[in-house]
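Recap from last week: sequence in, structure out.
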Amino acid sequence: MELSARNLRVLVTAGGGGIGRVITQTFLAAGARVHICDVSPELLAQAAAEMPGVSASVCDVSDRAQVEALFKDVRRELGGLDVLVNNAGIAGPTAKVEDIDPDDWDRCIAVDLNGMFYCTRLAMPLIKAAGGGSIINLSSAAGRLGFPFRTPYAAAKWAVVGYTQSLAMEAGPDGVRVNCIQPGVVEGERQDRVIEAKAKARGVSFEEQRARSLSAVSLRRMVSAQDIANMALFLTSSAGQNISGQALSVCGNVETLG
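Predicted structure tokens:
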């Protein structure tokens, strides 16, 4: 099975750290040319130092003007685009719905959903001009299950699934495959912060909340960022050439979110 990304031109949003960084490393190792963006100049500088050949832009994907500037950089650095990985996202607030500040709701939707649209609308003409390619959107297990105390995040991630399926139908005749990945409990600092916030909201210890989260995973373990990156690479490779319009869970079978 061929999992090469040789000569593919790839944009990874929020590629400076976390899942995005591992996706970037995986595509580079498979032969792709990669441009990344991130809100953190420090993360981008570190990524550039550790991943030679990567080009980068500071960008908040929720800001349309910044996204316009990002795509000017993409065209200059890559000369076109074959793959867009809409990875940028934030956890949003953890609270009962009546206690959520509307500004926090708006910010979560702006980054996790609107930013995906802002990037896709500019990426699509480039991918079509390349003769087709692939768009991968990051959803979540929270995009297929209810998620108490995390309503803004769940609302955005459910919306990503509908967006993905609709876009796959729209862009398929032009040779553009569109899928989303639904990670479960991904190990790392971000997940630790989520567990800590949920533990605080429930008045339990970090350890108790972590155990509760994993008890709802059939495999009783977290997934890694590399697991997500492997799926992204598969979907853009020739091995995934007939997969489109799908929401693919990489989660160890999360049974419920709580």
